[in-house]
From TrEMBL:
Keyword Transcription (UniProt): no
SUPFAM superfamilies assigned to the protein according to its UniProt record, in alphabetical order: P-loop containing nucleoside triphosphate hydrolases
Protein name per the record: Divalent manganese/zinc ABC transporter, ATP-binding protein
Domain of life from the UniProt record: Bacteria
Keywords: ATP-binding, Nucleotide-binding, Transport
CDD domains per UniProt: ABC_Metallic_Cations (cd03235)
GO MF term (any one): ATP binding
Protein family membership: Belongs to the ABC transporter superfamily.
Domain ABC transporter: 8-240
Length: 244
């Protein structure tokens, strides 16, 4: 069912904060079972695009369809790993409990999480290789380890679409590859993933398609087509740190 309908369709999207549009007339069609990267310099509208696909930011112009239906009706069908801010975990919560938070939509207020909910949370922790940390306080973990737990929480949600905003900030290269492998396995299991990502070396290797943004859509397509030196130097204006 739903064959031929893209997982995400963004049509002529313009989103402004005040006078200046963060995104201007952006159209992208993301097919199912793809791992898609969103690249572009700081302030180019990457997080805004992710938030619009979640229905958090309302378009000035344009529309967004999730599995063919309006984004506002699709709430909960999309899992999200936010860009990491400075989170102060000064209240006690274990890694297992954070992963279990991914199940909240499946747990009505009148009951506790079921054995299946708990199982799904533990399985997600195992996918990101954090099982050994299940009973630890999340506040005691490194930034990279916390990122893996947030990914587990999103995986536990069981949504078909996952949006991740810079999941590799503060993550060492080996862990980045380990997480990219997890994302590839999730794709093989039928998920569609959109990842804001700025390591162009791994972007070329792992992603089916790349979205190159700077307020407008500069390019969309396979990495070999998007990672063209001339195009990148135009968009990044010589501020490109990683390009090998
Ligand atoms: P990126 O994720 O690519 O760094 P963002 O989508 O966060 O870019 O931001 C795009 C532009 O919109 C930037 O110029 C940023 O300053 C602005 N912006 C983002 N969020 C807000 C906000 N809540 N209020 C006002 N301006 C914002
Ligand atoms: Mg951002």
């Amino acid at each position: 069912n739903g064959k031929g309908i893209p997982a995400i369709e963004v049509r002529h999207l313009t989103v402004s904060y005040g006078a200046r549009p963060a995104l201007l007339d952006v159209s992208v069609r993301i097919e199912k079972d793809q791992l898609v990267g969103v690249i572009g310099p700081n302030g180019s509208g990457k997080s805004t695009l992710i938030k619009a696909i979640l229905g958090f930011e309302k378009p000035d112009v344009g529309e967004i369809l999730i599995g063919g239906e309006d984004v506002q009706k699709a709430k909960g069908k999309v899992a999200y790993v936010p860009q990491r801010g400075a989170v102060d975990w000064d209240f006690p919560i274990t890694v297992r409990e954070v992963a279990l938070m991914g199940r909240y939509q499946h747990v009505p207020w009148y009951r506790s999480p079921s054995a299946a909910d708990r199982e799904a949370a533990l399985e997600a922790l195992s996918m990101v290789r954090m099982s050994d940390f299940a009973e630890r306080q999340i506040g005691q973990l490194s930034g990279g380890q916390q990122q893996r737990v947030f990914l587990a929480r999103a995986l536990a949600q069981g949504s078909d679409i996952l949006l991740l905003d810079e999941p590799f900030a503060g993550v060492d290269a080996a862990t980045e590859r380990a997480i990219l492998d997890v994302l590839e396995r999730a794709k093989a299991a039928g998920k569609t993933l959109v990842v804001v990502h700025h390591d162009l070396a791994t972007a070329a290797e792992y992603f089916d398609n790349l979205v190159l943004l700077k307020q407008r859509l500069y390019a969309f397509g396979p990495p070999a087509a998007v990672l063209q030196e001339e195009l990148l130097s135009q968009v990044y204006e010589g501020r490109l740190r990683v390009f090998t």
